[in-house]
Amino acid sequence: MPALLRRFLPVLILLALVVALPFLLKSAYQLRVATLVFTAGLTAIGLNILMGHAGQVSLGHAGFGGIGAYAVAILPTHYGIHPLAAFGLGVCAAGLLAYAVGRPILRLRGHYLAVATLGMGMLIAMVIQNQQGLTGGPDGMQVPRMELFGWRVRGAETWYWICGGFLILGAVLAVNLIDSPTGRALRAVHDSEVAARVLGIDVARAKLTAFTISAVYAATGGALLAFVNAFVTPDIAGFLHSVELVTMVVLGGLGSVVGAVVGATILVVLPQVLTVFHEYEHLAIGLIMIGVMIFMRAGVVPTLIGLVRGRSA
Amino acid sequence: MAELLQFIFSGLTVGAVYALVALGFTIIYNASDVVNFAQGEFVMLGGMATVFLAAAGLPLPLAAIAAVVVTVAVGLGLYLFAIKPARGASAVTLIIITIGASIALRGAAQIVFDKQFHRLPSFSGDDPIHILGATILPQSLWVIGGAGVILAALWWFFRVTLTGKAVLATAANRLAASLVGIDTRFVVGLSFALSAAIGAIAGILVAPITLTSYEVGTMLALKGFAAAMLGGMGNPIGAVAGGLLIGLLEAFGAGYLSSTYKDAFAFVVILLVLFVMPGGLFGARSVERV
Predict the structure, then answer these.
(1) How far is it, in rounded angstroms, from Cα A57 to Cα A61?
(2) Do B270 and A116 touch (CB under 8 A)?
(3) What pLDDT is attached to residue B289?
(4) Contact by Cβ (8 Å): A86, A284
(5) Closest residue in A to B289 (Cα–Cα)
(6) Is B276 on the interface with A (CB under 8 A)?
(7) How far apart are CA B155 and CA B171, in angstroms?
(8) What 3-state class would DSSP assign to A125?
(9) Minimum CA–CA partner of A108 in chain B
């Protein structure tokens, strides 16, 4: 396979999927679920850069998603800022916050890093929960409709294409980054921080870059989700959502762009399907997570690729 | 002065519960390097099972003992069916497995029990005891005393019994422990059973004060994990100190600053401590070998 094709293969797969799905999905509901998968997939691709390539865990990434989501809710509602500008501001705010807290946090390793990111996410969630006047507290708040040049952006199909577009854009940027010197530096850091340092790689800087980029992805995903739902609640920034995001990346396969989207698909679609057995929903989700992790240890996508290539996974 | 004492009492009560959860994290982590995010569910199971067994007509002490037995069985099941088959998997994979287990246990509790909040009757009445102008509930004394007894029993187990020493040896170096004939798989299973028992007892002791429901485990696991990290992961004394510290911080923060941000103080302090001491308060200064 030519190198360029190999590099962009994940993007092509996702592109084919985004274009083909509207022909397969009949109802507006199914289209909406696909849109939710795209927003979650975008966040998972970003988190995968941090986890799969730089090898750093974050248990607080939903916090960045919450910043993006609440920016497009709060800024237009309380300050009359245009939703598009609010979108940009929210994403920048999340990126800046990640850059600011990243340096001290990323000095920590393993479980200490996990608890520090957990604490950071909890603090963001608690501010959202408790600043009732601004955020509506636990009840959440409405997200104003986006209006562009007098055209109201609405409808399941419109948001499908917008979120699909962002997903493809996110995938293109991710595969380019992974193949860039920064990406190679990240992988070196993943393998051995000491060896990377010996090679002259600024380890702290590489980790900070990955953390900031992944926060920008998360904020973009969160803001898109808020637009799609036209409503936000503090759950979007909560610990359980952070865990869900990490699970998406690991379940789909660390280090795989397509894997991140597959993981997002599993965790978004599964609860929708399982509501049929709603009493047993959580039990089933938990057992499936355990089963996949035991039998497909590398994640769904890498395991399947391994099987197709005829190697034992 | 009375106010200060009041905050210390309530801080020590919740702190003792956090300490027990953190201790559960530490015991499993030491024996197997697994961070068990289902630790909070052990606490939930202890409380909920006691409530339902007591409601079914069992006397409270018997219900409590049966609840501990049930929780230990669940802990062993978690090890045998989820952790053991994944031997050799990466730390993140193992964390996802325990998170999956906690979701599954919560889902199962929802089916077996219900979604309501439940309260156990206090073990020895609800008349507050007055000390220097502050008051403390008899049940708080049960929680603090119970935690003390568990600590003493653990200390005896690890320092005096041969099995306990085998656990310590496994924690120190698993390969070396198995070379001298210690059945490390038994030790890891034992650590899951022990952690489940400690969690269940904590859940039973605290249920008359804080109420219990199928979802109380999540927040307790987070606080317990944070307490274990604050003390330095894998250090039992650190876990207890971390738990009590977080309990006191919350009580003082809620009392003197703002009760809405009660949960925030603990995490702010943890972040600050980790920035200054990346290995936690009692963490060993480990040197990475290349």
Answers:
(1) 10
(2) yes
(3) 46
(4) no
(5) A194
(6) no
(7) 15
(8) helix
(9) B278
Quote the tokens at residue A266. 């599993």
Say if the Cβ atoms of A116 and B102 lie within 8 Å: no
Question: How large is the ipTM?
Answer: 0.86
Kindly determine whether residue B263 and residue A122, on different chains, have CB atoms separated by under 8 Å. Answer: yes
* CB contact at 8 A, B51 and B207: yes
Q: What are the Cα distances from residue B14, in Å, to A44, B248, B251, B270?
A: 36, 8, 9, 17
Confidence (pTM): 0.87
B264 contact residues in A (CB cutoff 8 A): 122-123, 126
3-state helix, strand, coil in chain B (%, to 5): 75, 5, 25
* Cα–Cα dist A146/A84, whole Å: 7
Q: Do B104 and A290 touch (CB under 8 A)?
A: yes
Q: Which of A116, A130, A285 sits opposite B103 (nearest CB)?
A: A285
Closest CA to B69 of B50, B94, B87, B55: B50
Tell if the CB–CB gap between A119 and B271 is shorter than 8 Å: yes
Give alpha helix (H) positions in chain A. 3-24, 28-48, 61-79, 83-106, 110-130, 132-135, 156-178, 181-191, 193-198, 203-229, 239-252, 257-274, 281-295, 300-308
- What is the Cα B17 distance to its own chain's centre? 7
Hey, which residues does A142 pair with through a beta bridge?
A: A231
At B10, list the tokens.
């309530």
**Min CA distance, B132 vs chain A (Å)?**
35
Nearest by CB: B270 against A119, A240, A294? A119
Amino acid letter for position A9: L
Question: CA-to-CA distance for A160 and A156, rounded, in angstroms?
Answer: 6
At A26-42, the pLDDT tens digits run 788 889 999 999 999 99
| pLDDT reported for residue A311 | 56
Residue A313: its pLDDT value, please? 42
* Confidence class for position A136, pLDDT limits 50, 70, 90: confident
Contacts 24+ apart (CB under 8 A), B272-275: B273/B230, B274/A108, B274/A112, B274/A115, B274/A116, B274/B229, B275/A104, B275/A107
Question: Which residue from B270, B65, B167 is spatially nearest to A113, judged by alpha carbons?
Answer: B270
| Mutate: best of B95, B218, B225, partner A, most A CBs <10 A | B95
Cβ atoms of residues B34 and B170 within 8 Å: no
Torsion of CA B151, B156, B161, B167, to 10 degrees: 30
Residues A112 and B278: beta-carbon distance below 8 Å: yes
